[in-house]
Structures are given as structure tokens and as C-alpha cells.
Amino acid sequence: MLRTHRIALLFNANKIFDREVITGIAGYLASTRTAWDLFLEEDFRLRLTGIDGWQGDGIIADFDDPLVASALAATRVPLVAVGGSYENPANYPAGVPYVATDNFKLIKLAYDHLIEAGLRNIACFSLPEAQENRWAQEREKAYCKLLLRDKLQPEVYRGHATSAQHWSEAVEQQIAWLHSLPKPVGIIAVTDARARQLMQACALAGIEVPEQVAVIGIDNDPLARMLTRIPMSSVIQGAQEMGRTAAHLLDQMLHGVRLPDTRILVPPAGINVLASSKHEAGKHPHVMRARHFIRQYACQGIKTDQVAEYVGISRSSLEAHFRAELGRSVHDEILRLRLEAATGFLARGTCNLADVAVRCGFTSSQYMHSVFKRELGCTPRAWQERQRSAEAASDVPG
Fold first, then answer.
1. Mean pLDDT within 362-379
2. Keyword DNA-binding on this protein (predicted)?
3. Greatest pairwise CA separation for the chain in angstroms
4. Does some domain include residue 396?
5. Percent of the chain with pLDDT strictly greater than 90
6. Mean pLDDT, rounded, for 141-159
7. Do residue 193 and residue 81 come from a single domain?
8. CA distance 312 to 101
9. Are 354 and 295 found together in one domain?
10. Domain match, 109 and 228 both
11. CA-closest candidate to residue 20, choices 266, 210, 340
């Protein structure tokens, strides 16, 4: 019989990063014969009271929180730390195996994406300097290093920490900062939560995204994406791989392997490129304004006349600008974005076809069916099955 080890997972699962790390740990356990009895708080929050007296066999903990590192400083239990990478090696905890998200590569991936979109003004929306935000400051350093390398001027804005008391002031200052930036500008937000706030500020200020301000976050957080009208681009951290790696290291330690000062940097898994960072240079201002409106409301059943009214010109003039700039009509653009939204829902498999049609602004599932056939050459169900087959094939080892 395999021995069952008692393992504490010290994470705040209300954070997408921590949830993904835990998912990676679960993936490791599911793919091996490792038997662990896991301790987590019932509400998946992180509480340190009494952890120094915990009688268990091992711990995997989020060391981005300095209170966690302090609470575990004297532990004799096998411990693996998870957190952000540091430019200065002296900032890593001594004597503890450490699995890190590579902060430099996260920022570089976002930076390269914005540069490839034709943007030359790149700013960073960070968090206030604090011990618990050390990972954000490391991302700032990476951003500044990249811009100085390319002989560009860094522009970092930290703003306020999120609080109900200072929310109005925080939004006003975000808007003032956005207005102060040269346009067009690409902005790297250190998290999706920060990116969502910035996109909300753009909407309040009437700033077109991504024509004037292209935004990309970090985390690929589905909840943050659901709270934005314009689909939000994001760098996908390799957090699940971090969880699998951390579990593997602890498993080795439980079997007598010594791993002091082991450091493993896990690169990002890629970018989920959506509308918020798909900047296209040189568009007519009426087309830019119209597309900004369509991105926000395409799935709410808007018509061409409503778009023209928002832009403030006649329908015929707007159609002429669209034909000249994009080679398609306003209605085609609305349908394109509805299709993009529908394929996103179908890929996730979270809704039935009737619900997808309603949520994406189609008048009926039959109409969505006909649009799919005309534009994509297949039915919604066939498209979904094709995607599942492609994903299954990609999971098969070569």
C-alpha cells in the first residue's frame, strides 16, 4: 500500500493565479500514483493562524505573500514555495525550493505583441509599491528594461489600490493619465483586474479601444473577461505547469531527495489575443468610433442605424467609410463580432445553442445557424465538434 502524505496547500483561491497552481497540483496527483491528503481551508482562503503547529508531511505555499514566507521561515516540514521571479537572486528565499512565474517573459510577450501591432508608445499600468505587490514591481522592472533597451521612454502608472472609499478618485486619475498619454498607445496591465479597470476608464472617458488605447492584461482570467464589454487580451501564465512542477518537487522531497535552493522559472503559456489589443493603424476616425461602439454592443442586437447615430453621421456616409477602409459593410462588422463571440462560447462548451444565440445578439438559433453556414461553411454544432476533435488531437503525445 502506498503511504498517504498529509499536505497543506497555502493559497488564496479567489486569485486566478492561485487557482491555476492548485489545478496543476491536482493534475499531477491525477496523473501519478501519489497519494496526498490535502489540507485547504473550506472557503479556499489563506489563513495562517496555527500553521506553525500543523502536524503534516509537507507544504506548498504562495510566497508572493510576505506573511506566508515569514510564517514558514522556521518550519521543519518539507516545503516548496511558489511565486514570482526576481531580477535579484538574493530576493529568493534561502534554502527553499522555489517555482516561479517568469515575470520578464510575461512582460516581454505582452510588449512584443503590442510592438507587432504597430504601436510605438507603450505604457504600464501597475500597482502601488508594497511588500505584497513585489511581483508587480518586478514586472515594472521588466517593462522598463525592455523600453530602455529599445531607446524608448518608460511610462509607469501605479494608481490607487482597489477600495470602495477611493474608487471615484482612482477612476478620475486613471482617466487623467489616459488623456495624458500620446496616442495611439499600448498599455500592459500587470494583471487582468488592472486591465479591466483601465478598459472601464476608457469607456467612461470615450476613449476608443483598441484604436486609441490597446490594452493587454496578464492572467487570462475568465471572470475579468466576462466583466468587460470589449473582449480583453491577456498573457496566459504557466501557472498550471508551476503547480505540477511544485507537486513533483515536493513528492521527491517526501522520498528523501534534497533540493535546497532549487529554482525553476516557468515561462508563459502564450497570449489569448482578443479585441482589446487588435490595434490597426491609420483608420478613419468615424470608422474607429463606429467599431468601438460595435465591439461593446454587437451582442445586444444593435443595427446599422444605431451605429451611425452614435458616430454622428448619416448611414450612407458611414457605409461608404466602412467600404473604403475595411471592404465590408457595418452590418458585416456587427455579424463578424457576433460570430467571434459565438465561437468563443461554443469553444468553452458552457451554453446550449439557443443560449449562445441569445447571448450573442442573434434573433434566433435558426438565424445563427444560417450565418454559420454562410460565413464558416458549417453549422454551429459541426464547428464545435471540429474544435473538440482538434483539441483532442493536440493532446495526444507525438
1. 90
2. yes
3. 77
4. no
5. 62
6. 95
7. no
8. 47
9. yes
10. yes
11. 266
Does the pTM surpass 0.70? The reply is yes
- Determine, yes or no, domain membership for 180: yes
**Same domain for 140 and 229?**
yes
Residue 387 lies in a domain: no
If asked whether residues 67 and 95 sit together in one domain, one would say yes
Question: What pLDDT is recorded for position 396?
Answer: 52
- The residue that leads in pLDDT, 49 or 297, is 297
Q: Are residues 128 and 232 in the same domain?
A: yes
Is the CB of residue 126 less than 8 Å from the CB of residue 156? Answer: yes
Is the confidence at residue 73, as pLDDT, over 70? yes
Q: How far apart are CA 359 and CA 363, in angstroms?
A: 10
Output Rg (C-alpha) for the chain, integer angstroms.
24
pLDDT tens profile 85-105: 999 999 999 999 999 999 999
Q: What is the pLDDT of residue 1?
A: 57
Q: Is the pLDDT of residue 280 over 90?
A: no
CATH number at residue 332: 1.10.10.60
Give φ, ψ of 130 to 5 degrees.
-165, 160
Pairing of strands 270-272, 233-236: antiparallel
Four-point Cα dihedral 103, 20, 63, 57, nearest 10: -140
pLDDT tens readout for residues 171-222: 999 999 999 999 999 999 999 999 999 999 999 999 999 989 999 999 999 9
Same domain assignment for residues 110 and 186: yes
Give domain status of residue 296, yes or no: yes
Please list the residues that pair with 249 across neighbouring strands. Answer: none
Q: Rounded distance, CA 274 to CA 186, Å?
A: 14
Range of the domain at 142: 103-236+272-277
Quote the strand ranges of the chain, DSSP E.
5-10, 36-39, 58-62, 79-84, 98-101, 122-125, 156-157, 185-189, 213-218, 233-236, 263-266, 270-272
Yes or no: say if 187 and 215 are a contact pair by the CB < 8 Å rule. Answer: yes
Helix (H) or strand (E) holding 308: helix 304-311
Domain containing residue 200: CATH number: 3.40.50.2300
- Residue 50, CA distances (Å) to 71, 72, 75 in order: 10, 11, 12
Same domain, 223 and 246: no
Which amino acid makes up residue 100? Answer: A
More confident residue, 103 or 343: 103
Q: What is the mean pLDDT of residues 45-59?
A: 82
Q: How many domains, the chain?
A: 3
Q: How many CB atoms lie within 10 A of CB 253?
A: 19
